[in-house]
Amino acid sequence: METFTNETGGVSIRLLPEDSLDEVPQSHRKMVNQNIESIFRNIPEYFETIGKNAPVPAMRKWVRKLLDHESCSLLLQLSGYSKESRASFSWTSNVVRGAEFGPLRSKVKLKSAVGDLFRLIEFLDWMGIGVTGKLFSPQDYYTVGALGIEDGPKVNLSRSIAWGEFNGDVLIQAPGDFGGWRTISGRIVPLGTVTDSVEWVFDQLLNKRAPTLD
Q1: Res 146: pLDDT
Q2: What pLDDT digit, counting tens, does each position of 6-32 carry?
Q3: How far apart are CA 19 and CA 10, in angstroms?
Q4: Which of 76, 88, 174, 203 is least surrounded, with the fewest CB atoms within 10 Å of its CB?
Q5: Domain range summary for the chain, segments of one domain joined by +
Q6: Cα angle 196, 71, 138; round to 5
Q7: How far apart, in whole angstroms, are the C-alpha atoms of residue 180 and residue 196?
Q8: Torsion of Cα atoms, 72 then 73 then 76 then 81, to 10°
């Protein structure tokens, strides 16, 4: 078990599969629920299931690459500047871009590849706590982005879903099976259909890149 200071100034604990959850101090113990314990006992089986049910081929291939190199740890993290705490399973790899998986907590009814993704995981963070760059459970666009459209295709943001962010840019699912980004400058950048946009995210990770606009 390793204890270290994270990007927020908070305390993080990393446990490898051979470590014991009994070692977790009281400060972080509340994050270790039944679901976390169950996953930690058999990490490969849990992620085999995620890979098998992945909504797009690139995600399936990406998870397979992570499993083939088996470098996963449990992260229990406290934020240094808010009350946020989170448990995630962190994969590192030399062949693809690694990320932290948040185990599923919410019920998502959204009928799309984005909805299918978030019926498997709660969040996916490729940058780490306190740093911008992650996918999060779908929510109304205007709960995360206050800006309208300045340039690009006209989409109905009031009926759009946000499901990821990087440095002010927001991944959106819009009516008409539209998937893309709404940038911090208000530009709409199409990625194709909603399924195409999910495939694009995992294709970036598969090719050792962060899913961000150039």
Answers
A1: 63
A2: 999 999 999 999 999 999 999 999 999
A3: 22
A4: 203
A5: 2-136+194-206
A6: 35
A7: 9
A8: -60
User: Could you tell me which residues come within 8 angstroms of residue 1 by beta carbon, excluding any fewer than 6 positions away?
Assistant: 13, 14, 15, 16, 19, 23, 24
Handedness of CA 125, 127, 131, 132 (dihedral sign): negative
Point out the least confidently predicted range of 50-59, 79-88, 146-155: 146-155
Helix (H) / strand (E) containing 64: helix 57-69
* Token pair belonging to 47: 């992620």
Do the Cβ atoms of 51 and 63 come closer than 8 Å?
Answer: yes
Count each helix (H run) and each strand (E run) in the chain, helices first.
6, 11
Q: Can you give the three-state secondary structure of 119-133, one letter per residue?
A: CCEEEEECCCCCCCC
Classify strands 2-5 and 11-15 as parallel, antiparallel or unpaired: antiparallel
The pairing of strands 2-5 and 72-78 is unpaired
The 10s digit of each residue's pLDDT in 51-76 is 999 999 999 999 999 999 879 999 99
Tokens of 1: 């078990």
DSSP H helices in 153-214: 194-206
Identify residue 166 by its one-letter amino acid code. F
d(CA 136, CA 126): 12
Distance (Å, rounded) from C-alpha 127 to C-alpha 95?
A: 17
Cβ atoms of residues 65 and 96 within 8 Å:
yes
